[in-house]
């Protein structure tokens, strides 16, 4: 995971200088944002028994509809650390089944307004469906256990602190047919640098394998997509967007 983090983050602050945007773009673009995290998802996550000392981060992503409803939660697993991460991933997915009740029609019998909700994203003055990242941070120090949830992958904590949101990709195209094979069941990680105006560059596959033209098609999609930039307080900032594509998308 250290190598993956370096590959994801290493190019951005050299090319974009972690710049901020002082121009007020909020009239046209706003990221989707948690509305009721403290009442829904966060209290549903249970710290695993016999948890390890220190801090462990579970990263994932979900779609947020134009109405602010979350879709299915995907976790970005690290196969090399499966034994360590498994109980923590189970804690997050179990909480999602309870708190993110609308995240999958399989679990929803009717609209449930008690589930996790988002303030919908807007782009170009219109509500849009987006992908948003999140991280669940488990920390154990002696007998103290804490759980925190952030709306980013936390790759830019050194530059921005903890309270920033990652860029969000406006959904416009489904997974290409060229990528619907068994190799993508474990996910293909793609990173792309998004400047403070939402312009993508330097897209690259940082983990996973693809066959044939799949990789080129995914790179083309992420470079041609629209993005809402990362946001720190009231300013848009440059950051790396990371998305894991699965054959089950």
Mind explaining what this structure looks like?
The strands form 5 sheets. Strands 3, 4, 8, 9, 11 and 14 form a 6-stranded antiparallel β-sheet that branches. This protein has one domain (2-245). The chain is α+β, with helices and mostly antiparallel strands and 249 residues long. The protein is built from 6 helices and 17 strands.
Instruction: Give the distance, in angstroms, between the N- and C-terminal Cα atoms.
Output: 23 Å
Q: Any idea how many domains?
A: 1
> Rounded to an integer, what's the Rg over CA atoms?
17 Å
What's the count of strands?
17
Low-confidence stretches: 5-26, 102-112
Mean pLDDT: 82
The major beta sheet can be summarized as: 6 strands, antiparallel
- The share of residues in helices is 10-25%
SSE sequence, one letter per element: HHEEHEEHEEEEEHEEEEHEEEE
Please state the overall shape, judged from the principal axes of the Cα atoms.
globular
DSSP strand content: 25-35%
- Tell me the structural class: alpha+beta
Number of helices: 6
Give the topology.
Blueprint: H1 2-9, H2 12-15, E1 20-21, E2 33-34, H3 41-44, E3 54-64, E4 70-75, H4 82-99, E5 118-119, E6 121-123, E7 126-128, E8 130-141, E9 144-150, H5 157-160, E10 164-165, E11 168-170, E12 188-194, E13 200-207, H6 214-224, E14 227-228, E15 230-232, E16 235-237, E17 239-245
Antiparallel strand pairs: 1-16, 2-5, 3-4, 3-8, 6-7, 8-9, 8-11, 10-15, 11-14, 12-13, 12-17, 15-16
């Amino acid at each position: 995971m250290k190598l993956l983090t370096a590959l994801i983050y290493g190019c951005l602050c050299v090319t974009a200088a972690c710049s901020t945007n002082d121009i007020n773009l909020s009239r046209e673009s706003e990221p989707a944002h948690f509305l009721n995290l403290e009442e829904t998802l966060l209290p549903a996550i249970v710290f695993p028994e016999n948890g390890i000392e220190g801090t462990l981060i579970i990263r994932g992503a979900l779609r947020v509809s134009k109405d602010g409803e979350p879709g299915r939660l995907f976790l970005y697993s690290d196969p090399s650390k499966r034994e360590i991460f498994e109980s923590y991933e189970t804690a997050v997915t179990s909480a999602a089944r309870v708190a993110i009740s609308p995240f999958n029609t399989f679990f929803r019998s009717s609209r449930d307004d008690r589930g996790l909700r988002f303030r919908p994203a807007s782009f170009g003055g219109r509500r849009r469906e987006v992908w948003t990242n999140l991280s669940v941070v488990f920390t154990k120090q002696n007998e103290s256990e804490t759980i925190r949830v952030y709306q980013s992958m936390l790759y830019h904590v050194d530059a921005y602190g903890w309270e920033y949101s990652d860029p969000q990709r406006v959904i416009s195209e489904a997974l290409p047919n060229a990528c619907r094979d068994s190799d993508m069941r474990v996910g293909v990680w793609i990173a792309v640098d998004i400047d403070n105006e939402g312009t993508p560059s330097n897209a690259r596959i940082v983990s996973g394998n693809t066959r044939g033209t799949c990789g080129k098609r995914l790179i083309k999609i992420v470079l041609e997509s629209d993005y809402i930039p990362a946001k720190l307080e009231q300013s848009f900032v440059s950051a790396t967007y990371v998305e894991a594509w699965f054959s089950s998308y």
